[in-house]
Amino acid sequence: MKKIHIVILVGIAVCIMILLSFMADLSSYETLASARQKEGKTVTVIAKLDKSASVPVEYDPAKNPNLTQFYVVDSLGNRAQVRYYFEKPMDMEKSDRIVLKGKMQGNVFEITRKDGILIKCPSKYKDDPKAAANNLSQN
């Protein structure tokens, strides 16, 4: 084989490794029940904040500013405690849905990355007819 053929084969191998690393990062959404079955593996769950708990969100910055605990319920009604090892996200109580990316450890869903939680507020996605009329009248 010529040197150019070896270089091309090495380049193809590198491209395949890069594609495989990207594919490993792709994830589908799980339920809390399926996350329990995949204990220790990083999964993404869509849930709602369980407001029926006595304290919906536990966050005490004087005691531990890097721990927020709360309970969530998924679309199938499964409930789990969540430990987010950062400060409490803003407007969490107003959220419509919460996207969680972390690992299930026993009955607790642990999030150890800052970007492991995404709050979806309903007010950001609803149309306001008055605002739309104002925008149209200004143009």
Provide a compact summary of the structure.
The protein is of the alpha+beta class and 139 residues long.
Q: Major beta sheet, specifics?
A: 5 strands, mixed, barrel
H and E order: HEHEEEEEEEH
Separate helix tally = 3
Strand content: 25-35%
* Structural class based on helices, strands and sheet pairing: alpha+beta
CA-atom Rg in angstroms: 22 Å
Across the major sheet, the strand order is: 2-4-5-7-6
Q: What are the segments in which pLDDT stays under 50 over at least 5 consecutive residues?
A: none
Shape: elongated
The total beta strand count reads 8
* Average of the residue pLDDT scores: 84
Percent helix among the residues?
Answer: 25-40%
Structural account:
It is built from 3 helices and 8 strands. The chain is α+β, with helices and mostly antiparallel strands. Strands 2-4-5-7-6 form a 5-stranded mixed β-barrel. The radius of gyration is 22 Å and the shape is elongated. The chain starts with a helix and ends with a helix. The relative contact order is 0.15. The model has no long low-confidence stretch (mean pLDDT 84).
